[in-house]
Amino acid sequence: MVYLWDLLVLAVGATVGSFLYVVALRYGTEKSLLAGRSLCPACHRKLSVIDLVPVFSFIFLRGKCRTCKAKISWQYPLVEILTAIIFLFLFRSPLALIVWCLLIVIMIYDWRHKIIPGGLVLVFDLLALTMAVLNNLGGDLFSALLWGPLFAAPFFLLWYFSGGKWIGLGDAKLGLGLGWLLGAASIDAFILAFWLGAAVSLLIVGWQNWRKSQRKLTMKSEVPFAPFLFAATFLVYFFKINILGLINFLFY
Ligand SMILES: [Zn+2]
User: Fold this and answer.
1) Interval between CA 33 and ligand 1 midpoint (Å)
2) Could you report the per-residue pLDDT of 83-95, keeping only the tens digit for each?
3) Would the CA dihedral through 7, 9, 10, 12 be positive or negative?
4) I want to staple 213 with a disulfide (CB 3.0 to 4.6 A). Which of 25, 127, 171, 208 is the partner?
């Protein structure tokens, strides 16, 4: 019975995930969230039930539209799987679940537009702050609240001293809420985000050199940082990845 229940939670999570993707696509546009079923963006065919089953449709259709064979973004199944995992961990904590769903929408929006949506981040920050307060009442509330500004400070300084060239102010605003969400694990997420960012940047540079790409690679071909912040936060929050422990283990 336990497995059946887990499967149900995963299915609900994946379905919510595909809804979150639509929310992110339509955020800031005039389109209503509930009006009409989704269309294929290439041939505008109305999608039917078999096109809309989370994860499975993508696999069965091999990532292509049934009629026009246009590629479907790999981001759909990824978001559905991530949301399913989040539901499995958090279905008993509604506030944390809402905070994470909001974070997913922010990340999709950032992937697609390379802009962190200010309004959504404000709500995310306020909810993460509320969660930090509720979780630390009667405990060390002061330290818990300090993690937000501590996490945001390096991004704010990078933004300030580069005049907005290296990093946007949005990363600092997002960091505030991430710090409140993660508490003391902020340090682990911060280090992991930089490692992931550096590793992926190296892979991209290597791959582009290998392809002998015509476009010259300069510092300007910037890799956005928010996806790494999100990935690191996800891994540290749900899988308790202990980077400080790992560093201690490797170097001392
Ligand atoms: Zn199509």
Assistant:
1) 21
2) 999 999 999 999 9
3) positive
4) 208
**What is d(CA 14, CA 244) in angstroms, rounded to the nearest whole number?**
32
CA of 42 to the centre of ligand 1 (A): 5
Tell me if 120 sits within 8 A of 27, measured CB to CB.
Answer: yes
Separation between Cα atoms, residue 133 and residue 171, nearest integer Å:
22
In contact, 107 and 227? CB cutoff 8 Å = yes
Q: Which residue has the tokens 């950032």?
A: 110
Would you state the structure tokens that stand for residue 56, as one six-digit string? 């499975």
For residue 38, report the distance from its CA to the centre of ligand 1, in Å: 11
Q: Radius of gyration over alpha carbons of the chain, in Å?
A: 20
Model pLDDT for residues 167-190, shown as the tens digit of each residue: 889 999 999 999 999 999 999 999
- Judge residue 119's burial from the number of C-beta atoms within 10 Å of its C-beta, 0-12 exposed, 13-18 middle, 19 or more buried: exposed
Please classify residue 176 by burial: count the beta carbons closer than 10 Å to its beta carbon, then call 0-12 exposed, 13-18 middle and 19+ buried: buried
Q: Residue 61's closest CA among 80, 71, 44, 45?
A: 71
CA of 45 to the centre of ligand 1 (A): 6
Q: How many CB atoms lie within 10 A of CB 86?
A: 23
